[in-house]
Amino acid sequence: MAIRDTAAFTFLVSCFLAQSVGSLSPICNSNDLRALQGFLEGLESGIGDFFSSSSDCCSWEGVTCEASALAANHSNISSRVVSLELGNRRLQGVVSKSLAGLDQLRTLNLSRNFFKGSLPVELLCLEKLEVLDLSSNDLSGSVPLDIHIPSLRYLDISGNLFYGSLDAGICKTAKQLQVINLSINKYTGRIPVGFGNCSSLEHLFLGSNFFTGNLPEDLFQLSKLSHLDLRDNKLSGALSSGFGNLSNLAKMVISINEFSGNLPDAFQNLGNLQQFSASSNKFVGPLPASLTNSSTIFQLQLGNNSLSGPIDFNCSAMVRLTSLDLGSNQFNGTILESLSSCQQLSVLNLARNNLQGQVPNQFSKLGSLSHLSLSNTSLQNISAALVVLQQCKKLTTLILSINFQAEVMPLDSNLQFRNLKALVIANCGLTGLIPPWLSGCTNLQLLDLSWNHLSGTIPVWFGNLKTLFYLDLSDNFLSGEIPKDLTKLESFIYRNLSLEDPSQGLAFFIKRNISARGLQYNQISSFPPSLDLSNNMLVGPIWPEFGNMKTLHVLNLKKNNLSGYIPVSLSEMTNLETLDLSYNNLWGTIPPSLVKLSFLSKFSVAHNQLSGTIPSGGQFHTFPESSFEGNRGLCGLLSCLPESPEVPGRRGTPIESPEGAKESIIGLPFGFGAVVGFVVVVTISFMSGWLLPKTETRNCRRNL
């Protein structure tokens, strides 16, 4: 890191010097030179003196000067620094207060660097400053915003570690302020009264902080405000109908808060509103009529609330609606055919509601539909549903889990989903075989048929699905040998695929990102390449050809009836993070070459018939004794491990004990390791309707 940073600084310095040699450009003011030299002294890697060898700072890269006056002898032009643009230069160190000496500065951009420490108060006294961008650094401390910068138009200090309560005093003097971005910091307390004085404000971003309480009414006096983002705070109380006064509002995001009560029926005056997101709050009651008749909204996200009543949209009025997320609420009734009149609809999430009946026949008219989740909505008749949905020719993502209980998987070879990239029909208790029509889904990237009652063998045509990189057939009644063709899946061998994420920016699962202190949405393309065949009745060997699957991250074959030796070739699966071969009938030794799997963080061969010495070195010293228990004669470095009592449990049926429960992603059993030394904190929740629950029965998984 230090070498790379030094190289970057050296390159920057070289640019400065190269531009200064033989230059006839006006030289910078001596006061400005001293201010910049002081700034350079605050940078790390000892480069400050090196920069200062050039006396004409106006020739430095990132510095812009403007002529101010002629010197007395008219031989030189004295220029003043008006802009310092050093964004994304990998600079480290502190922001020196000497920059306050640039009293003609209009633009200061130090964003996307590695500056630390506090922000000098002196910088907040530059009266001619118009743009201040310090975003995406590691600055900390409190920032007094009761300051006097009358010319300021753009303020962005997002993505830092600033803390304390907020003061809106800046709005008393900065009447031209158009953008305020304080998001992704550690501000606490209430959003103060005073922002209403920023009469020119167009964009206000306060998301991903720790603000509490309700919203001050003067926010709704900002007649020019077009973008209001308050997501991921702890704001509470009823949402005031006053937001209906924001006549220029185009985007409003208040998701991941604690707002409660009914959504105000105040959308009729928002003639420019295009996006409204209020997901993950505590809103109740029906949808307001002014919202379901909006002619301007194209994205509406209300998932993970307690909204109720029928889903009733006036699609003849909502002609621009393209994305609708109502997942994880308490809506009831049937899925209305009237939704099919929303001809522009491309993303629809109705998952986890109290709906019933069948997929309406009129859904076949949704020609723009690309992403559909109807999981856990008590749907019936899977055959009819697939016949209807196959006519949505642009459909790329289809999630139907926890429906169609105990029905038969359709085998109709006429079904065609040629553009499908993600298909999840998990946790339905479906019987029958793996359907042959899946062989025509040649663009499939992710397939989950887990937690059903599917029987028969695994088809060999899976090997022809060139883009498939996530396959979960676990917890079924599949039998026979693992087809060798699975080891020929190109995405497991090369992963040289250009994967276009079909999920339209909507979450499959939610992960807490510590550095951003907010919830990040992780899409299909971020899933680790995985093959999960666990909890079936598969027999035969683990093929040596598995070693060709060099890009596979997760291989789970536990709780089958596999036999034979553990192939030495598994050590060639160089990206493997999880390897679970437990509860089979494997014999022989654990190949010592497995210590070469440097990314392996989860490993188990428990309850087999293995013997010999447990390999040492590599990751093996991190694996618990439970990873090896239940093997006769398997020995560690000092002694042989005792054979554990046989743990009751069947081969090929899902586990009912808590120990067998898995993490889930949209109903997908999912476990994966991480690179050593890098801790990944995964919070699986139901903050969007894409996530599916487990219950305590065999057919449904427990809630997480």
From TrEMBL:
Secretion signal span: 1-23
Pfam families named among the record's database cross-references: LRR_8, LRRNT_2
Topological category with respect to the lipid bilayer: Single-pass membrane protein
Organism: Davidia involucrata
Keywords: Cell membrane, Glycoprotein, Leucine-rich repeat, Membrane, Receptor, Repeat, Signal, Transferase, Transmembrane, Transmembrane helix
Membership in a protein family: Belongs to the RLP family.
EC number: 2.7.10.1, 2.7.11.1
Protein name (record): Putative phytosulfokine receptor 1
Leucine-rich repeat-containing N-terminal plant-type domain ranges (all copies): 30-65
UniProt main location, coarse: membrane
Domain of life, source organism: Eukaryota
GO cellular component labels: plasma membrane
Gene3D superfamilies membership: Ribonuclease Inhibitor (3.80.10.10)
UniProt keyword Repeat present: yes
Top EC group: transferase
Transmembrane spans: 670-692
Location in or out of the cell: Cell membrane; Membrane
GO biological process, one term: response to other organism
Gene Ontology MF terms in the entry: protein serine/threonine kinase activity; transmembrane receptor protein tyrosine kinase activity
